[in-house]
Design brief:
The complex is a heterodimer of chains A (154) and B (50).
Chain A: H1 4-29, E1 40-41, E2 57-62, E3 65-73, E4 76-78, E5 82-84, E6 88-96, E7 101-104, E8 111-114, E9 118-126, E10 130-135, E11 148-153
Parallel strand pairs in A: 3-6, 5-11
Antiparallel strand pairs in A: 1-9, 2-3, 3-4, 6-9, 7-8, 10-11
Chain B: H1 4-49
The chains are: A alpha+beta (154), B mainly alpha (50).
Chain lengths: 154, 50
């Protein structure tokens, strides 16, 4: 037999879950804030011959819009020392040549797993000037702790 | 609308059962509060950084 108090906490629990799911669903589908995807694939042995990774670098794609085409490998980022202006919306297009790497900028929402064979995309608008640290947050080998670079926002 | 007497007698009927579950309800409520506070905190941090 169901108890009145049991009914109460079941309703509250289900209600909380439903509210969480509605908010996350709205964020993902209506506001475009879904987690970074890796739906595009690439041959990890031919990264340097495959566009756009045959020419890694920082490209201006529109008014204050930039695209960073980046290759990750043990233990570095190509290109390193990226420079973009304040307020720039930057889309990072990344892949790995060897093992799984991470791409994280602490203090921002940039945090993506970059896997060999997959193209990872994540974008961010840099509203504050400064030097942003970029780190690999997936253990990728003996030099993992040294795998970092910076993004300069002026 | 139930009369006051009807509510009273209903309360008496359920009283023993409810007493034994009141502590459980409070505990479950406490766990729910912790979950909600943590979820809202993480959500707030994310939205602050967008």
């Amino acid at each position: 037999m169901q108890h009145r108090l049991e009914e109460m906490w079941m309703i509250v629990s289900v209600g909380i879950l439903v509210v969480f799911m509605i908010i996350i669903g709205y964020q993902t589908f209506a506001m475009g804030m879904g987690p970074p995807s890796h739906s595009e694939t690439i041959d990890p042995q031919k990264v340097e011959e495959t566009a756009p990774f045959d020419e890694p670098g920082v490209f201006e794609t529109g008014e204050n819009k930039y695209e960073v085409v980046m290759i990750l490998q043990s233990f570095g980022f190509t290109p390193s020392n990226i420079e973009v202006p304040v307020g720039a919306e930057v889309e990072f297009v990344m892949t790995s040549k060897d093992v799984t790497h991470g791409f994280q900028v602490p203090g921002t929402n940039i945090n993506a797993m970059v896997m060999p064979g997959h193209i990872q995309k994540i974008s961010h608008t840099f509203d504050e000037p400064g030097n942003y640290l970029v780190i690999c947050n997936e253990y990728c080998g003996i030099g993992h702790q040294a795998m970092s670079t910076t993004i300069t926002v002026k | 609308m139930k009369t006051t007497e009807a509510i009273k007698s209903e309360k008496q009927l359920n009283n023993d059962d409810e007493k034994s579950l009141r502590g459980t309800l409070v505990s479950v409520g406490f766990v729910a509060a912790v979950i909600v506070v943590m979820w809202v905190a993480v959500f707030w941090i994310y939205m602050e950084r967008v």
